[in-house]
Write a structure and sequence with these properties.
This protein is α/β, with parallel strands linked by helices and 291 residues long. The chain has one domain (4-289): TIM Barrel (Alpha-Beta Barrel). It has 12 helices and 8 strands. It has helices spanning 21-33, 53-67, 82-95, 112-125, 136-139, 145-151, 168-174, 191-196, 211-222, 226-242, 250-258, 275-289, and strands at 4-8, 38-40, 74-76, 99-103, 130-134, 157-162, 182-185, 201-204. A 5-stranded parallel beta sheet has the order 3-4-5-6-7. A 3-stranded parallel beta sheet has the order 2-1-8.
Length: 291
């Protein structure tokens, strides 16, 4: 079962906007050295919406190659067209990923029945494990707990990244699905509460900049050291907040630039972090790094 701190990896870019392949490989190595339990390339945080298909698949290929089987690689392969999602998922399977993460179709706002058919069709087309991904603030589509329960019996649908904004949704899902169905937080600031309701970890934006701390936090909770987990969660909350002061991944990419990990590249329509937020981001980051 997937668990712990799984990073929703940024896609590093040169100032020109070109993917920085050397920085990508370096970032992956940094995560391997700092306790990250899994990597999600080309999700929302990886700017999948502005990568070409060739770039998307090359990020996946290189991630699988660098990781070398040491931790799971869960490729983002969702799309609002079922045929496109099937193609990306089949290609990711061919490239050797451990699983795929499939966001609910965005913009076209399918019904709950449409979601069942969408995910069922993808599951039938591949053999790799699949994670559902519910993030209605971005997609205008909220997959209900009952819909998750209808999909959970499909053998290669193994879990969900839940980012609906309501931690109690985890409890509703947990009551309806098998015990081995993995529920992962998709909201860093709510991860502790979600774990209290039955989540087994997080697919994290904050892990981009504080991989060791996020791993320590998740494992403290999973190992039963609840007081330690609560202490770490409280200390991490200011970082969770500032990393969403502008659209993700803008703040995370700027933080990594300031840390010397990447160049400042990001693709339109997103821009570099506004000047007004930079000093506060750095101040909070320094405090969190000193935990």
């Amino acid at each position: 079962m997937l668990s712990g701190s799984i990073v929703a990896l940024i896609t590093p870019m040169a100032a020109s906007g070109e993917v920085d392949w050397e920085a990508l490989e370096s970032l992956i190595g940094w995560h391997l050295d700092n306790g990250t339990n899994g990597i999600v390339p080309v999700g929302t945080t990886g700017e999948s919406a502005t990568l070409t298909v060739d770039e998307h698949l090359e990020v996946v290929r290189r991630t699988v190659e660098v990781v070398g089987g040491r931790i799971p690689v869960i490729a983002g392969t969702g799309a609002n067209a079922t045929a496109e999602a099937i193609y990306l998922t089949q290609e990711a399977e061919r490239l050797g990923v451990d699983a795929c993460l499939l966001v609910t179709p965005y913009y076209n706002r399918p019904t709950q029945e449409g979601l069942v058919h969408h995910y069922s069709a993808i599951a039938e087309a591949v053999n790799k494990p699949l994670l559902l991904y519910n993030v209605p603030s971005r997609t205008a589509c909220d997959m209900q707990a009952e819909t998750v329960a209808r999909l959970a019996p499909i053998p290669n649908i193994i879990g969900i990244k839940e980012a609906c904004g309501d931690p109690e949704r985890v409890s509703a899902i947990r009551d309806l699905v098998p015990d081995n169905f993995a529920i992962l937080s998709g909201e860093d600031a709510q991860t502790l509460r979600m774990m209290e309701y039955g989540a087994v970890g997080t697919i994290s934006v904050t892990a981009n900049v504080l991989p060791k701390r996020m791993s320590e936090f998740c494992h403290a909770y999973l190992d039963g050291d609840i007081d330690r987990a609560r202490h770490l969660d409280e200390a991490l909350q200011p970082i969770h907040e500032i990393l969403f002061v502008e659209s993700n991944p803008t703040p995370a990419k700027w933080a990594l630039y300031e840390m010397g990990k990447v160049d400042k590249g990001i693709r339109l329509p997103l821009l570099e972090l506004s000047e007004q937020h930079r000093a506060e981001l750095l101040a909070r980051l320094k405090i969190a790094e000193a935990l």
